[in-house]
Amino acid sequence: MGLPAQSVSDRMKLPAPPLLAPPASVPPSYANFIPPAPLPSSMSPASTGSPAFVPPLPGAPAVPSFSSNVGSFPSAFPLRPNQNVAASNGGVYPTSTRVSQPYGERFPPPSSFALNEQRGTAAPVPRNLLGENYLKEQSLSEVPHSSSSHPVIDASAASLPQPPSNSKPSGFPSMPNGCSNNQSNFPPLPQPNQLHQSAYPTYRYGSPGNYPSQVAGLQQDFQQMGFGSHQQPPFIDLMQDRELFRFGTDEQEVELPHTVCSPNVRCNPSIFRCTLKQIPQNEELLNKSRLPFGLTLHPFRDIKNLSVIQTSTIVRCRYCRTYINPYVYLIDNRHWKCNLCFRSNDLPDDFNWDPTSGTFAEPTRRPEIRNATVEFIAPPEYMLRPPQPAVYVFIIDLTNLSTSSNFKGNLFQGNPFLPVNDGLLVNLKKNIETIRSFVQSLPSLYESGRSGHNCLGAALNIAHALIENIGGRITVLQTVLPNIGPGSLISREDPNKRASSDIQCLIPATDFYKRLALECTGHQIAIDLFLLSTQYSDLSTLADMAKFSSGCVYHYPNYHMNRNLLQVKRFQKHLSRYLTRKIGFEAVLRIRCTRGLTLHTFYGNFFVRSTDLLAMANVNPDSAFAVQVQMEEDLNGLNSVCFQAALLYTSSKGDRRIRIHTLCLPVTKDLTTVFKYFDLKCSISLLSKMASERLLSGRSLEDSREAMANAVVDAFASFNNAVARQGSVSNLFSPTTMMRLFPLAILGMLKHSCFSSGRSTKLDSRAADLLLFRTAPLEVIELEILPALYLLNDFCEVEEKPQRLRLSYECVSSEGVFLMDIGSYVYIYVGSKKTFDVLDNTLSKRVHNFLRSLQCYRSVFAPVVLIRDDSHLRELFTSRLNEDRTESSYSYVEFLRHVRQEVRR
After folding, report:
1. pTM of the entire structure?
2. Which of 276, 209, 258 is CA-nearest to residue 236?
3. What would the DSSP string read from start to end of 455-470?
4. Each residue's pLDDT tens digit, 466-513
5. 773 alpha-carbon distance from chain centroid
């Protein structure tokens, strides 16, 4: 954003909290609409340009090397229009249909093109965007999922990872003023059934009318600035008002200017959204807000109703190659102006043909103009080779079950001999019974083996050689640390340093799996890893096979078939979803934006081919991405900006498809409006991906924590200094919009197991959480950071769901039953005075319906875990109460005091 980069040493370190004890399918058919009469020859469409492709890059893919100079900045690279896909015109009239996209679309044939790494450079990133002076290496890189059954598992010692044991942190910096270890300086710890005792007894929480006079004097000023409504105060003082959820969690809709073609069309926010819903008009205003500026994208998300268009004429801008969308300007029925480069283009003659009604009509009735997300069935020119059969290869770990036959010896060889390169592949439909019989016989075939060796690297080399000419997907089911052959590893975990803030073993121990992944990417092969471990397996190293090949990582700690039913159920559900979900092969993703804006850093699992082009051997509906945005030129004279993401992939039917997402946002020159339309969900998703990338790249844990804390300090310093100038030093003002939850969200990130300091966390578990944040979509990250807490006792019939509670133990009673949704799990906490009997009544049915609704709107299964008040797993629940103080972390009030102190410096 143009802010000067500062090191962490330039700012006060985030002080340590007081050391106190914690409180208690059917394939879609495409209708062909033939016009009443053929068009006259004089009206034949004019060609908009010949097809242009990104040619295969010569040479083998370069293997990127790690740089030890983390203090240098790459230089900025410009955006260049790239005609990677062009439309051709023909005499076929367009057809369109609105199709429900089921799961189960499989075996899309890949095509291949050579890839070559291009190391990009980025401009300095401001510290509140987690970007202080480090060299980030870029690699080559809504059908809701419902469950018919929702098992409730009474967690035992083996069902979940054991709660982290807190240990006294060492080496914390000194406490700030007002945050000493003296307990008298803080409000007393709340107890169950006890109301919170305010540290400010003069005023009552949740009563803005009782604010001090200088605060009340700002009400009229904010109303005149349009910063609120008459129904609720335009701002709140976070030091006084802790009932943050009383304003609700509904997001504000922005109004688009009427100069765009379809101002009422909106892009699905679960697919494409920006951290700022109204874009600052110039760089000075953006820097003054000190808010993160970026995008989150879920390009292949399951969509219930998707407009699929089959036409020989895909209308695109001749200059910047933008696809026509609802936010262009239609000059007349023959011309349109691009909303990214603002140049005029001609409309083809057959664009006035409406495939939905089968008549000639206005261009505004076209599905491309009426939908922010559309999918084109591309012409044959979009294929570089004939469709190939999709191939799935499974690598199964049989450690302690293998024999001393040639099976083990062949796998140990670094360069295995393959008699044929395709004779080992079988057709699934023709050999389904043979495959099922073979899988069922595996346990008995190797039950006599007792080998403790594992040669994963050699097995991956064989799988790669087997399908390198075809492409496909390799699925690895691993249980132990590879300890022999290529890619062998040794244990690096020291149990005595799990609570240390200096974590050294999150970077890969070898580049073997990265080099293999890059080779697989060049041959259109993705690698997915299922790690079912009972001991340390060096996940931070093994994950490279998925990170650099656009794959996925799944982790199941303490997995045991008989003693850990919870993880067994998770694995079954995840594997079922994995095998039946849609998949796209040989995918490329390009993001374009309005002139004056540029993209500079991407986050996710992919291969970066150019500044705005990502290559993915496979694309799946459960992975999301993020990217930072910079403002290179002022947006003076513009009333809106647009971002467009185009995903080109091969479907299971062997056709090439282009899925287009277009996002339009208004431009403002008012700073208060920028704060008012701050998008919390998108921001925490972006910041969490950036923080996880930093840790996985070798940066220190303390550095990442300080950067996260500075993000909220910078934002509130700007708001309080530039907007709420009349406040006293004891106030910390915030809009009543979602920005009020920003400090609580950052505190939730600091307390999450992967970012926490001073508590014992296994290396594999920390790495698994970091990898989850790297690719997880918005809804998963939101619940991981801000869990949803509900009281189930008073679940009224008229309510769709219970009222959301604050994440504090003072809201928990011994007579209540509480549900906490943390994204990957759903906890049901039963108070000590409640019986554990299962009742068949109206309330029970409503609760079960509520549980089913929670599972329905997420793609990854989250098991329900029962936790008794007297259970040793109680800390799994209490550790997610982010507002409470723990031995190694702030309470919410203490964190606000730290933010206020930094703001007033």
Report:
1. 0.75
2. 209
3. -HHHHHHHHHHHHTTT
4. 999 889 999 999 998 998 999 999 988 777 666 666 667 788 999 999
5. 6
